Amino acid sequence: MTPGEYRLRVCYGKTGRLRYLSHLEVVHALERVVRRAGLPFAITQGFSPHMKMAFGPALPVGTAGEREYLDVWLTRYTEAAEVLAAMKRVSPDELAPHEARYVADGERSLTAALTIGTYRVEVDGKEIEETQARTALLELLEGGELVTERKGKIKVFDLTRCVPKDLRVTGRDGGVDIELAVRMGPEGSLRPELLVRRALPPAALQAAAVRTTRTDTLIEEAEGVWSRPM
Question: Measured between alpha carbons, how far is 144 from 138 in angstroms, rounded to an integer?
Answer without folding.
Answer: 10
